[in-house]
Specification:
The complex is a heterodimer of chains A (176) and B (263). In chain A, 74% of the residues lie in helices and 0% in strands. Chain A has 176 residues and is mostly helical. In chain A, α1 (3-11) packs across α2 and α2 (15-37) crosses α3. Chain A is globular and about 45 Å long. With 263 residues, chain B is α+β, with helices and mostly antiparallel strands. In chain B, α2 packs across α4 and α3 (22-34) packs across α4. The interface between A and B is large, with 66 and 47 residues. Chain A: One of its GO terms (molecular function) is DNA binding. Chain A: This is RNA polymerase sigma factor. Chain A: Pfam families: Sigma70_r2 (PF04542), Sigma70_r4 (PF04545). Chain A: Belongs to the sigma-70 factor family. ECF subfamily.
């Protein structure tokens, strides 16, 4: 099934297409959210909200503006950041002890047993600090290229090529 | 376009991350439409990121779709059949209430004005009545003084052939040369006709007109003050055409009475 068509059917409120897209991206969404809120239960709740929001606002997505996956990750980041500004989150803040997605991968005990997940876990531990940071900022935190370059104190072009190299290594390992 | 160079620039990785500007996104999208090679690359990058981000989730969320489906289904029916009419209902009620309050306000203002007008009119009417009553009283007192005056000659006029039921009375004040005619006993004159009062000399019979009573219907007490400088021996009243006549129409003589001889 062509991804563009699937998205189109989803926009026409086709629940089957919705389910397919959900199955493709739900764990990514909850991974992004979990990395921000640092609480798996909360992450599950927010993930539900993200997909409901996507369904209700499906007409606002346009392929011209970017990938559907990118669009839904954006909703996920915003929802997670909104939560971190809530009272509920501030009360539970003292329990936080990990800052990076890497830490989450390293400390997670109940990660599902797919080879991908295990592979990624092994891979990220071997990544250089700079690679970890670039991936963290661009994919998990949703920084723009410019924001990432300021945060990492690195020229714009370097952010671009370093990220390309890091993702390249990941792809090689995953065989995609 | 150099596809290889475009790919190795790293722009597609940023495209999937959502780190590009809106304009750049549209440019990349257009480039992908033209080069299938770019789409393959993007799908591969996306696949890697999907897996990377999914690895940060501690539990598998796929089982949750049934919950979401229920919520979405519920939302759909809610939005279509409950929420919207409810909103409209509240809106309509609001409008209806404000219109009702508005018209009630206008109504009560107009009622208030009406009442004020009514009060003003009633007040005026009352004042007129009081005024009239005091005038009437003054007139009555004046009449009483006239009738009691010993110098006033009273002349009863009795009904004649054309109207035997009629009667009238003349009070003649010789000092002021006025007569006061009490014409209460005369019927209302037909339309277009008036009563005319005559002073008469009997030998020979010479009538002198004292004028017509034009305000007969309008006058309430039917007492009319008429100037009379004649040396009258009798008084008569005839019914004449409007405007009066040169000489009395004797067929229409209503009342007649002779002045009693001075003692």
């Amino acid at each position: 099934m062509n991804l563009d068509q699937l998205v189109l059917q989803f926009q026409q409120k086709d629940i089957k297409a919705y389910e397919k897209l959900y199955n493709m991206y739900c764990n990514s969404v909850s991974g992004i959210v979990n990395n921000i809120v640092k609480n798996d239960d909360v992450a599950q709740e927010i993930t539900q909200d993200v997909f409901i929001k996507a369904w209700n606002n499906s007409e606002s997505y346009s392929s011209k503006k970017g990938r559907f996956f990118t669009w839904i990750l954006n909703i996920a980041r915003n929802a997670a950041i909104d939560y971190t500004r809530s009272k509920k989150f501030k009360q539970s803040k003292q329990n936080l002890n990990s800052d990076f997605f890497v830490d989450i991968l390293e400390t997670s005990q109940s990660l599902d047993n797919s080879t991908d997940a295990i592979g990624i876990k092994e891979f990220v531990t071997k990544l250089g600090d700079k690679c970890k940071k670039v991936i963290e900022l661009l994919y998990f935190k949703g920084f723009t290229q410019k924001e990432a370059s300021e945060e990492l104190d690195m020229p714009l072009g370097t952010v671009k090529t370093r990220n390309r190299n890091c993702i390249g290594e990941l792809r090689t390992m995953l065989g995609v | 376009m150099d596809i290889k160079k475009y790919i190795t620039s790293g722009i597609l990785e940023l495209y999937v991350a959502g780190s590009l500007s809106e304009k750049e996104n549209e440019e990349v999208h257009a480039a992908i439409q033209q080069n299938p090679e770019l789409l393959t690359e993007v799908l591969s990058i996306e696949n890697a990121i999907v897996k990377l981000t999914a690895a940060a989730s501690k539990t598998d969320s796929t089982y949750l779709f049934t919950t979401i489906k229920k919520k979405v289904d519920g939302d759909v029916t809610k939005v279509v059949s409950i929420s919207k009419p409810k909103n409209n209902w509240i809106q309509y009620t609001g409008w209806a209430a404000s219109i009702l309050i508005g018209s009630a306000l206008v109504w009560s203002i107009s009622q208030n004005n009406k009442l004020k007008d009514q009060v003003a009119t009633e007040k005026q009417q009352l004042e007129e009545q009081i005024d009239k009553a005091s005038n009437n009283l003054a007139e009555a007192e004046k009449l009483i003084t006239i009738f009691r005056d010993k110098d006033i000659v009273s002349v009863p006029l009795s009904g004649q052939a054309v109207s035997p039921e009629s009667y009238a009375k003349v009070y003649w004040d010789k000092k002021t040369n006025n007569i006061y005619l009490d014409a209460k006993g005369l019927p209302a004159p037909p339309k277009g006709k008036v009563y005319q009062v005559w002073s008469l000399k009997l030998t020979p019979l010479t009538p002198t007109s004292l004028g017509t009573i034009d305000t007969f219907m309008a006058d309430n007490n039917k007492i009319f003050t008429i100037e009379n400088a004649n040396n009258s021996e009798a008084f008569g009243i005839t019914l004449e055409d409007e405007g009066g006549a040169e000489s009395p129409t004797l067929e229409q003589l209503y009342t007649l009475g002779a002045v009693p001889a001075a003692p």
